[in-house]
């Protein structure tokens, strides 16, 4: 299984800050980003209740949206600006299910990532002739 990275530059423990459905309602979630190695991992304390199909990063408000079978949940708070470039550099994001006693990864998996940017998509639409 995966090893933990050392010398983290950024570490965020996310807690729900709004009334929308959030992944933090069911588990602990941390995001590790390492500037030197350009590494990114999302750490969770247990598996999701439903099958996670993909992630969407909404650049309009920096919300990370988790797409499950039959529902969407966001992170509960926008990503910090410093974390956004780490997501933009990849098409998949690594998840580690952590053993909370040893702080080592019990299981790792990759999830596809798509980026939503309404402003950019508007520019791609040709004007009416």
Q: Number of helical runs?
A: 2
- Please tell me what the overall shape is: globular
The number of domains is 1
What pattern of helices and strands is seen along the backbone? Answer: EEEEEEHEEH
Rg, Å, rounded: 16 Å
The neighbouring-strand order within the major sheet is 1-2-3-7-8-4-5-6
Q: Which stretches are low in confidence, meaning pLDDT under 50 for 5 or more residues running?
A: 1-14, 121-125
Number of strands: 8
Largest sheet features: 8 strands, mixed
**Would you tell me the structural class of the helices and strands?**
mainly beta
Average pLDDT for all residues: 81
| Helical proportion, percent range | under 10%
Report, as a whole number of angstroms, the end-to-end distance. Answer: 57 Å
How would you portray this structure in words?
The protein has helices at 84-88, 118-124; strands spanning 10-13, 29-34, 39-44, 52-58, 63-68, 71-74, 92-99, 104-116. The chain is 9% helix and 42% strand. Residues 1-14 and 121-125 have low confidence and may be disordered. It has two helices and eight strands, in the order ββββββαββα. By secondary structure, the chain is mainly beta. A hairpin with a 2-residue loop joins strand 5 (63-68) and strand 6 (71-74). The protein has one domain (10-117). The chain has an eight-stranded mixed β-sheet.
